[in-house]
Amino acid sequence: FPPGPQSQALFERAHAVFPDGTTRITVERDPFPRYIARAKGAYLTDADGKRFLDLNLNFTTLIHGHAFEPIIAAVESQIRNGTCFANPTEAEVELASLLCARVPRLERIRFVNTGTEAVMFAVKAARAFTGRSRIAKIEGAYHGAYDWVEVAQASVPQNWGPPDSPAATPYYRGMPASVLDDVMVLRFNDAARARELLSRHASNIAAVVIDPMPSRAGLIAPEPEFVTALQKTAREHGILIISDEVLNFRQASHGAAARYGIQPDLFALGKIIGGGFPIGAVGGLADVMKVFDGSAGRPLVPQGGTFSANPISMVAGHAAMKALDEITFARLERLGNALRNRLEDAIARANAPFSVTGAASLFRIHPKPRPPREFREAHWNAAEAKVMTEMTRSFAGHGILLPVGAAACLATTMGEVEVDAVAGALEAFLDQNAELVEE
Ligand code: PMP
């Protein structure tokens, strides 16, 4: 089930206007991208009229699936009243109030347009608050396109550096050396080394940026000792903790940090809180968020944005978040557990060298016999990458779009039927590829 002739024709036209035929690197192509015509709920229809279960949901954004009725209603009525103003609206107060009421330590918030911006302003806020410029981040973790958090994001094994001293590798040619100097790289779940490195360099470190379950680095849960080490060392040395929950906020109504015992000073949010429209948010303790306070003149960190807090994203986000009550989160949690169990059972029955990670409504299948503990263990060699491409093709053959090398997710509009379909697709793949999976 490769993409069909309509997708191919669109891709050919796209080559005349985009550098490689696409307008974002993250678009999957095998051999070219599948263009989408329309979508509803958990399913989308491509330009050639084929229907698929969508486990990508725009990189985990659409927690209610596509074209969710309460979001359509909210957006339709807002569009008739205007789409963006230079003045504030009630809608922004509503969404901010809902989020701050739910999430511990999220006392003040500022809306922006993307997760990238949310992380960028969180880093700037930490620098302004501490008067320090350097940050620490996790090897292999993705935090968007702000230079400092791009360091050591997708390095190849020959550039990793020794296990106890991961290298600050550049992400693009020409990345300033000064950026690399201002980033310390930690390995996920290596508590002892994190404590040591952070303490040694504490005097110039503003913040540790941590995604509680970094998706591209394996979608692996933080071990309690690692959380304690980060938390304690940061507190001792006046280093702030930034919880990047752009993706993992969908794990619980009180957010991912609270779920894993992390006490952030600052948060970066995005994706689900916009209900499928562009959004990001930087938030945190009132004391720290004062760096954005412009009431007495120029603040320490000026922050604006033409489309920041535009009422379309605000009303869509509010409709999405309102529909996500505790009962809905609990249902998603059960559905995710059921799916991960089914996948693990299929793998065990086939005695195949695969494993599953994730939590709540998120999961990843790894071509590894044991679940990886961090980025280096999760990294694929060429043979493993080939197996995963085969798996994605096989899933597409069963009418399911499974993201490659990133988090797959469930939506509130999914249920037993979808869990059965995904588990069935993995069983079929393992059945048909005994030679691929033999150890
Ligand atoms: N941080 C994390 C953890 C993310 O997953 C993402 C996006 N996948 C970002 C930041 C960047 O968000 P955006 O694509 O909205 O800029």
Automatic annotation (TrEMBL):
- InterPro entries membership: Aminotrans_3, PyrdxlP-dep_Trfase, PyrdxlP-dep_Trfase_major, PyrdxlP-dep_Trfase_small
In Pfam terms, one family for this protein is Aminotran_3
Per its Swiss-Prot or TrEMBL entry, what cofactor is needed? pyridoxal 5'-phosphate
SUPFAM superfamilies attached to this UniProt entry: PLP-dependent transferases (SSF53383)
- UniProt keyword terms in alphabetical order: Aminotransferase, Pyridoxal phosphate, Transferase
Please tell me whether the keyword Metal-binding is annotated for this protein. Answer: no
Q: Which domain of life is it from?
A: Bacteria
One of the record's GO molecular function terms: transaminase activity
Keyword Heme on entry: no
Task: Please give the family membership noted in the entry.
Answer: Belongs to the class-III pyridoxal-phosphate-dependent aminotransferase family.
Q: What is this protein called?
A: Aspartate aminotransferase family protein
Annotated organism of origin: Mesorhizobium argentiipisi
